[in-house]
Design brief:
It is built from seven helices and no strands. The protein is mostly helical. The chain has one domain. The N terminus is likely disordered.
Length: 171
């Protein structure tokens, strides 16, 4: 019996590699005792996840605001959260920028590429009551628990990065 590698099986294999601390881009470097600079370290992965989580949440809320007053209120709450945590968010954006610059030093139109990389890898959800309600629930948690709630939300996004970015194996 011949098994075909379906996208689902490949995703499971990649997740298994992530559990072992490996991604395809860094698997060869796993046995290397030198510090690998051709991949994202743990802090950089965290920053990438925070940036993408913020971009995704803001995008969803903007789209919900077009169809609902609740959406506009939630979007306003996001902007307030963003303002209150501007230094932390800016730190994540800066770390992400520096990481991408290190990994791809010859990339032209760097800033545009960074934005496109975040947006292109995220399939925008269809906006419906369920999607908006889920985004509002995140906003409610941010209002109640602040930055720790956002860190938790961003951490959930990290597992999605295994196929988008080269993640280093940490020793």
């Amino acid at each position: 019996m011949i098994l075909r590698a379906t996208p689902y099986i490949l995703a499971l294999m990649l997740l298994g590699a992530a559990d072992a601390g490996l991604t395809p881009a860094c698997a060869q470097a796993a046995g290397n005792s030198k510090k690998n600079t051709n991949c994202y370290n743990a802090k950089e992965v965290e920053a990438e996840a925070e940036v993408r989580a913020g971009l995704g949440l803001r995008d969803t809320l903007r789209r919900c605001a077009r169809v609902s007053e609740d959406g506009q209120a939630a979007l306003d709450a996001w902007y307030a959260f963003d303002k209150d945590n501007a230094d932390r968010i800016k730190g994540a954006v800066t770390m992400r920028h520096n990481t991408i610059k290190r990994l791809y030093p010859k990339r032209t139109a760097q800033e545009q590429w960074e934005n496109d990389a975040s947006i292109a890898t995220r399939a925008a959800p269809e906006i419906n009551d369920g999607v908006c309600k889920a985004a509002y629930d995140v906003i409610d948690k941010l209002k109640k628990n602040g930055w720790p709630a956002f860190k938790y939300y961003a951490k959930l996004q990290q597992s999605l990065l295994v196929t988008d970015i080269p993640i280093c194996r940490e020793n």
